[in-house]
């Protein structure tokens, strides 16, 4: 789908004609970019609790160097 931005007062707006992938006027949206692509996604509900965050933090402290080497 190719769209153009529409003038909305002093701003520009991207108008979505119909509900798309379960999004309506009340859905909070997240915008992200890699400087080349603009991604619009419904806001994710984060279900992280303190325990998984602590486990992840400990893993990064203990194995962060190994994770970086594996990523390369």
Helix vs. strand class = alpha+beta
Work out the strand percent: 15-25%
* Anisotropy-based shape: elongated
- Distance N terminus to C terminus? 36 Å
Mean pLDDT: 85
Number of strands: 4
**Radius of gyration, whole Å:** 19 Å
List the total number of helices.
1
> Regions with pLDDT < 50 over 5+ consecutive residues?
none
Largest beta-sheet details:
2 strands, antiparallel
> What is the H/E string?
EEEEH
The neighbouring-strand order within the major sheet is 1-2
Give helix % range: 25-40%
In short, what is this structure?
The chain has 72 residues and is of the alpha+beta class.
List keywords for this structure.
alpha+beta; 72 residues; elongated; 31% helix; two-stranded antiparallel sheet
Could you explain the architecture of this structure?
With 72 residues, this protein is an alpha+beta fold. The protein is 31% helix and 22% strand. It has one helix and four strands. The protein has one helix at 50-71; strands at 6-8, 11-13, 29-33, 38-42. The strands form two sheets. Strands 1-2 form a two-stranded antiparallel ribbon. A hairpin with a 4-residue loop joins β3 and β4. The longest helix has 22 residues, at 50-71. It is elongated. The two termini are 36 Å apart. The mean pLDDT is 85.
